[in-house]
Automatic annotation (TrEMBL):
Interacts with RET in the pituitary gland; this interaction prevents the formation of the AIP-survivin complex. Keywords: Phosphoprotein, Repeat, TPR repeat. GO terms for molecular function: peptidyl-prolyl cis-trans isomerase activity. The lineage of its organism: Eukaryota, Metazoa, Chordata, Craniata, Vertebrata. May play a positive role in AHR-mediated (aromatic hydrocarbon receptor) signaling, possibly by influencing its receptivity for ligand and/or its nuclear targeting. TPR repeats lie at residues 163-196. This is AH receptor-interacting protein.
């Protein structure tokens, strides 16, 4: 199960605790994969086929977050963040999002070892927040709006004065036609930072224009439907 998590880019210990697979199976009734459940009931030798994907030059290999020590994770985060920013500037939005995700995963893994609300937990959370906002910016451009809504809301549940989270969530709401919610978020942006009025006004004008276009399309689409 850990190898499958690794292949999916997840923490190999995600959803697990330190115990044998039989204990996992008894506690959760399943390992999450029918073939693994069957293997525990009827053990047999396994053969793994390993495929070489690429050969890298000495010194060029970068460990995946799951394979790093705690100290290596802390040291890697600023570098991964910088790589994500550079990819974003180059217009490689998907690749940048993956970098931000890796940096967040490093910090989340460390945060899980701290008491929620403790000074160390809060310090890590404050490092996660700007990375998560960068990730949301990428997701906005990829039109994955509901993921943006979820992440920005989680930020605002903890930091009610985060202007960037309100702005990005407002854009995501507008994109999925949550008009009242978008207007409320943009109003909150103005209340927290009036200097952003030109940017917010542009977003509101864009939303109003889209609404007019949608109304016009609806009138054409449903023209005569009630007179039949």
């Amino acid at each position: 199960k850990s190898l499958r998590n690794i292949a999916a880019g997840k923490d190999p210990l995600e959803g697990q605790r330190h115990c044998c697979s039989i204990a996992q199976l008894h506690e959760h009734y399943s390992l999450g994969y029918p073939d693994l459940d069957e293997l525990q009931k009827n053990p047999q030798p396994l053969i793994f086929d390993i495929e070489v994907l690429k050969v890298e030059a000495p010194g060029s290999y970068q460990q995946d977050p799951w394979a790093m020590t705690d100290e290596e994770k802390l040291q890697a985060v600023p570098l991964i963040h910088k790589e994500g920013n550079e990819l974003y500037r180059q217009g490689k939005v998907q690749e940048a999002a993956a970098k931000y995700y890796d940096a967040i995963a490093c910090l989340k893994n460390l945060q899980m070892k701290e008491q929620p609300g403790s000074p160390d937990w809060i310090e890590l959370d404050q490092k996660i927040t700007p990375l998560l906002l960068n990730y949301c910016q990428c997701k906005l451009q990829c039109e994955e709006y509901y993921e943006v809504l979820d992440h920005c809301s989680s930020i605002l549940n903890k930091y009610e004065d985060n202007v960037k989270a309100y702005f990005k969530r407002g854009k995501a709401h507008a994109a999925v036609w949550n008009v009242a919610e978008a207007q409320a978020d943009f109003a909150k942006v103005l209340a927290l930072d009036p200097s952003l009025r030109p940017v917010v006004s542009k977003e509101l004008r864009s939303l109003e224009a889209r609404l007019r276009e949608k109304d016009a399309e609806d009138k054409i689409r449903f023209k005569g439907i009630f007179s039949q």
